[in-house]
Amino acid sequence: MSEFWLKVEKTLKYHGNRALRAARAGWWNVTRTPARRPVIIVGCSRAGTTLVYKTFSESKVLGSLNRETHDFWVGMHPLSNKHWDTHGLDAADASAADRDYVSRYFYSWTGQSRFVDKNNQNGLCVPYLHSLFPDAHFVFIKRSPGDNLNSLIEGWGKPEEFATWSQQLPEKVAVENGRYTQWCFFLADGWRDYVNASVEEVCAFQYNAINQAILDAKVAIPTGQWSEVLYEDLVRDPVGGFKRLFDEAGLPFDATMQTHCENVLDTPYNAFSEIRLDKWKDGRNRDRVERVLPKVAGVARAMGYTL
Q1: d(CA 248, CA 215)
Q2: Which one of the record's GO molecular function terms can you name (predicted)?
Q3: Residues 57-92: pLDDT tens digits?
């Protein structure tokens, strides 16, 4: 096919998708069908949440945007509303208008009333999300502190990927003696205390903050609406691990999904290197990670890890 016809095809597809979204939005305005039992993936940044999100996105009975939704949620609740203190939202921030807006948005994009969502900040917003959708099913991804901290440190070196949202921060960021000038991943209460800290101290703070927030929020979620899994268990047995998660979320796990999970580790999603456990022990950040492991020991133990 010539370049001209490729452009024509691309243009037609673009306008066709826009028309389809508009038609779905119009239909939603008539039916006003609320989202039903959305699946919300939560966990620390660089914990394996993308792997889980992309796998759930393969389900034929879930709608998925197949992309991070940070801008969507922050567009509803700008960081300035919280004085740039946190990405966190609580139950008091939820409203019927929010519920309608989210339901309409996901339906118009996916054509499904049940969807899966994931972004770096969801873990700080569990009370809000549960208030918004009381029947939501939450999936908590836990990762061992050594590997998670190592990946966070690596991520701080990629602001073009993980700090695109932080251009308007009111404080000057000079992490690691000014080596890092853009705040990455998410804001949690107390982040300003770390704008001049070492990068490993920042990452330990973020690991503690979001995982503790999830653990605290868990107690208010009905047991049947909560799943959690160790990232390490998914690496060791992706088929068994994902089958359990799908079963708990009330999703079919057929032969096609099993085949996908059998091969899911062959094409890593957003991984910095090959998928391997305990990578931090022979990596360039080992000394940094070891310095801050005691700072995250309490949260790690609460998540089921022994240091």
Answers
A1: 19
A2: transferase activity
A3: 999 999 999 999 999 999 999 999 999 999 999 999
**Secondary structure (DSSP) of 199-213:** HHHHHHHHHHHHHHH
Which residue, 276, 44, 40, is CA-closest to 142? 44
Domain coordinates in residue numbering, the chain: 1-31, 32-302
How far is the C-alpha of 144 from the C-alpha of 282, rounded, in Å? Answer: 15
Whether residue 271 is predicted with pLDDT greater than 80 in this model: the reply is: no
What are the backbone dihedrals phi and psi of residue 243, each rounded to the nearest 5 degrees, phi first? Answer: -60, -45
Token pair of 196, please? 């001049």
Question: In whole angstroms, what is the distance from residue 307 CA to residue 297 CA?
Answer: 7
Rg of the chain's alpha carbons, rounded to an integer? 20
Q: Give dist(CA 298, CA 244) in Å, integer.
A: 27
The DSSP H or E segment spanning 142 is strand 137-142
CA-CA distance, 1 to 12, in Å (whole number)?
15
Distance (Å, rounded) from C-alpha 77 to C-alpha 81? 7
Q: Which of 87, 75, 81 is nearest to 124 (CA)?
A: 87
Spell out the CATH class of 32-302.
Answer: alpha beta
What are the pLDDT digits (tens) for 142-195? Answer: 999 999 999 999 999 999 999 999 989 999 999 999 999 999 999 999 999 999
| pLDDT digit string, tens, across residues 94-145 | 999 999 999 999 999 999 999 999 998 999 999 999 999 999 999 999 999 9
